[in-house]
């Protein structure tokens, strides 16, 4: 059986609707709390797949949260080994940073369900299966597209929503894994953030009700990406 490691930062931001797909595709999944684990002790090349999930901190917060330095070092080693790597939200920003791209604050929060605009490369990628389906956005930082990577998607508020580098690296600014039926955990867990941003949780609940096709499409995207890994 293949192995997958998933680094997480918040308990309710794990793999969500994507987790069953790993089992269906023959992966044994192990979660690792990136905040409390000695990441220097992890052999980045051992797992067949490494996934880095979201969180409310920034890629440049290493002085405040020293594990971020370890996480970036782990990702640089993984990238150098050329083995499959998926990043979601903070995870995608960390991959971009590890690849030498700039990650910076946008000056506003993009929070809620909204569809993507796919680039030509995105339409030729597994993300094409998300056409016309709202996905969950929850960020205030954004990455530049790393040199040599393919820009896959954008929204009106964020021009860089996804990139791929070869077949084995995929970085998603949005939350492909989030289930609309589980949105209450996000609203409570990030209460301070949405309140500070002037966002009414009732609006996000309404948006979630229009995103009931997301879990099925998200699983199809993830399955298609896994199937082309090498």
Provide an overview of this structure.
This protein is of the alpha/beta class and 230 residues long. The chain has one domain (2-227): Rossmann fold, CATH 3.40.50. 30% of the residues lie in helices and 25% in strands. Strands 2-1-3-4-10-9-8-6 form an 8-stranded mixed β-sheet. The protein has a two-stranded antiparallel sheet with strand order 5-7. A hairpin with a 3-residue loop joins strand 9 and strand 10. The model has no long low-confidence stretch (mean pLDDT 96).
Brief account:
The protein is of the alpha/beta class and 230 residues long. It has helices at residues 19-24, 67-81, 90-98, 120-123, 183-189, 191-196, 201-209, 214-227, and strands at residues 2-8, 27-33, 49-52, 85-88, 103-114, 117-118, 135-143, 150-154, 162-165, 169-172.
Q: Strands, helices and their partners?
A:
Layout: E1 2-8, H1 19-24, E2 27-33, E3 49-52, H2 67-81, E4 85-88, H3 90-98, E5 103-114, E6 117-118, H4 120-123, E7 135-143, E8 150-154, E9 162-165, E10 169-172, H5 183-189, H6 191-196, H7 201-209, H8 214-227
Parallel strand pairs: 1-2, 1-3, 3-4, 4-10
Antiparallel strand pairs: 5-7, 6-8, 8-9, 9-10
